[in-house]
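Fold this sequence, please.
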Amino acid sequence: MRPVTATTPARRTPRTVLVLVGCVAVLALVCLLSLAVGSKATSLPEVIDALTGRPDAYLATVLDARIERTLLALGVGAALALSGALMQGVTANPLADPGLLGINAGAAAAMVTASAFFGVATGSTASAWVALLGGGVAALVVHMIGTVGGGGASLVRLVLAGAVVAAVLTAYVQGLALSMPQHFDSYRFWVVGSLGDGGLDHLRSVAPFLVVGLVLALLSASGLNALALGSDTATGLGVNTLLLRVTALGAATLLCAAATAAVGPIAFVGLAVPHIVRALVGLDVRRQLLTCLLVGPIVLLGADIIGRVVLRPQELMVGVVTAFVGAPVLLLAVRRLGKRAA
């Protein structure tokens, strides 16, 4: 090996490593802010002292609740970001995400139905199964509508079918909530998307689904890189494209349904985060998925912190914040696609 001299440039640190280190640092800061911000603000020094020492009883109770909320946001944010990256990779459509393709709405409709008619509690293991079933059925319906008339499921058809299914299911959820007011309070915060009522119990109930979805997502990463070159090229490289699509879409459905069961449908995280990640680490799906595990929680926790601050001492639910932030991201993505098409 040649020594490094004045004429031999030192090896540069890979950009992905720098990005990951930066994301870890930002995530640590956001987690500390999440522990400090609430209806009553707590300074960062107080939080650090409480974590490293013995806080008073009140502060300990507050921090326990905020720690559970932060951990829940970490799991849900990572799941939604991974789900969106998988959907965009499989469909080769940068506008695809679980919400636009109906999975969010299907999981929400199933959960609301189970809660209203069968007394299934949100955040329970049973709710995760219900949300998974609803999300899977919605995804199947979207695919069937997208293939009507033959010729396969084009990207435009899938997006339009997802928008129709999501609109119908959202109207169903709203109608059910208005017609059964006695059940409305039990899920009105959940159906908008809120971390406020969640905790470690909700996270534990959906953890098996998150783990399975994560494993399937990582197993699909290399195949999605090949699929980005085209189905024919991927097949020529030895990739079973049908199995790959089923695995990746199954992982996306698992992750999205589990996140929805835990905290309710949260829009735009799965759409926005993959765009941010691609700008940071490029087109390698393996790097994207790894970075999504960090950027997703950063975005969701950041939105949750904003929701706690803007209406203090009241709280704006995180699903509302992500909708306000995500809508401009969607418009920018559509504008960029329009420029490319031109």
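The chain has one domain: 77-341. The chain has 13 helices and no strands.
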